[in-house]
């Protein structure tokens, strides 16, 4: 069984890592697919997001990190996978995840979306919340894998030095 876990991962949080670790146990091979969305401004470049995901999943032998742009279903065909993994936090995710799952099935009939319910402690955690806290100098290390947190601290330090 080959599955794909798509997302922006801008940046990857403990919540994302939890979903990756748990889904890696359910499938033979998992591709974490970083969306290169040219319409959305991101904090990290796609290359940075891919590199960080590679670092934090280096202990998982059946996990591969890739990037993609365009339609997810086209990427699924290329990857020879029909299983999409998504994380589900709260009712806030419900509308969006349902819509995505229905549209993706409409576009590619064989595709199945599996929603993994987040661990309780990560149910409030999102990349946008982390970015908001980090922007105002708050400590985000508790929300992020160490490699991601160190990278962000460095990135913010460098941009402050430039100003
Ligand atoms: P997108 O921009 O596609 O929503 P994200 O990178 O924000 O991508 O998230 C990718 C997937 O991971 C989504 O299914 C999202 O619901 C899920 N996710 C994000 N944060 C968490 C978390 N704290 N716990 C569980 N799932 C999460």
Please outline what is shown here:
This protein is an alpha/beta fold. The chain has helices at 14-26, 46-56, 72-78, 91-107, 127-135, 146-162; strands spanning 2-7, 29-35, 63-68, 83-88, 112-117.
The overall pLDDT, averaged over residues, is 94
Q: Decide which structural class fits the backbone.
A: alpha/beta
Ranges where pLDDT stays below 50 over 5 or more residues in a row are none
What gap, in angstroms, lies between the N and C termini?
49 Å
Rg, please?
16 Å
Tally of separate helices: 6
Number of strands: 5
Proportion of beta-strand residues: 15-25%
Q: Major sheet: order of its strands? A: 3-2-1-4-5
Main sheet attributes: strand count, strand direction, barrel closure: 5 strands, parallel
Q: Which ligands occur here? A: adenosine-5'-diphosphate
The helicity comes to 40-55%
SSE series? EHEHEHEHEHH
Which word captures the global form? globular
Multimerization state? single chain
Task: Write structural notes for this entry.
By secondary structure, this protein is α/β, with parallel strands linked by helices. Helices cover 45% and strands 19% of the residues. The protein has a five-stranded parallel sheet, with helices on both faces. Helix 1 links the parallel strand 1 and strand 2. The longest helix is centred in the middle third of the chain and has 17 residues. The protein is globular. The protein starts with a strand and ends with a helix. It binds adenosine-5'-diphosphate (ADP). The site of adenosine-5'-diphosphate has 16 residues, from helix 1 and strand 4.
